[in-house]
Design brief:
Number of domains: 3
Low-confidence stretches: none
CATH architecture of the largest domain: 3-Layer(aba) Sandwich
Helix content: 40-55%
Mean pLDDT: 90
Bound molecules: S-adenosylmethionine
Largest sheet: 7 strands, mixed
CATH class of the largest domain: Alpha Beta
Number of strands: 17
Number of helices: 15
Distance between the termini: 46 Å
Amino acid sequence: MKSQLIAEIRDDGPIPFDRYMDACLYDPDGGFFSAGPLRSARTGDFVTSPEVSPWFGTLLGRWAQSASVALGQRGERGGLPLLIEVGAGSGSLLAPLIAEAGGVFGGVYVAELSSAARSGMSERHPTVDVVASLDEIPTGVDAVLVANELLDNMPVALARRTDDGWLEIGVGVEGGDLTLIEMPVREEVSAWCDDVMGDVPVGTVVTAQLAVASWISSVFDRFGRVSICLIDYGARTEELAGRDVGSLIRSYRRHQSGIDWLQHPGETDITVDVNIDGVARAIALAGHQVRVMSQAEFLVEQGIHELIESVRGDEQLFAREGKIMGQLKARSQRIEMEALVDPAGFGAFTVLLVEEGT
Ligand SMILES: C[S@@+](CC[C@H](N)C(=O)[O-])C[C@H]1O[C@@H](n2cnc3c(N)ncnc32)[C@H](O)[C@@H]1O
């Protein structure tokens, strides 16, 4: 892929960063997700909340259940909504999610772009329709969507604020190798940055998440009434201010971070800390409602503390009865649940709850 990108840039000129990220992750022949093996697993390249504990799916299921009931109460449209997981990776969220909430949905879909991830998922989850894209799901129906760590993998444009407006950061070729360059800003990127990011200080580099905003709009256009739960790592505007490109973009391969993503296009994950305020503002400007909270706050609302206490009770009971295996099992369940709300880890992730404006 690298030589192909270099040839393309030599012929046609530098490419904006979102185009580079899109090719690296989703090029049909060489993209990290579209062409590679399954990535999100303990045996893959990175580990996520659903991989850490099945209770994550159970608690998300509680939210999905209440979202389904709320959709039913808000409209006179008949039929149960669809439950849709987007970017399901290994599918480890599905079993607990469906066990908790499947009964209040008219069907369950997975939309997952990676064929390696889709492979075998229908056999493992026979009640789920597994498709490559939301375009393959019936339109006009009410839907509850969940997506864990999807937004950070959606291509971003990079723009730097200058005294005279915005410049874009893209990828060019220098000395036979790929390198970051500054290039004139595209109109839509400049407009997004002006509308969404407001007056950030000169020199600030912004991750312009136009792809996330247009994906959310497409969800609202496609389905009837919609409730969306998006969970991801991200940062608020003040945390992003002053950061350079190197710290805004992350890369992972086989549980190692910091791989040089310009040297290894297609061979490493490229992800960003989601620009939480930017995305939330874009959602609000599109006329939708958005609630922002940490993963820890979200899981506490869904009752994780009560679950942890109940498992702790089992652990103590097993210990008193001398049932070592039971005690160890309960202990590891408790530790996994605690990891989901750890403020220095998954608990600090952000949850965006999106629904249509009233
Ligand atoms: C970081 S992984 C997260 C996997 C899983 N949700 C988890 O938490 O373990 C992101 C996944 O989203 C998928 N993906 C990215 N963009 C997508 C899109 N527009 N539609 C469907 N899947 C997408 C990728 O193929 C990848 O499997």
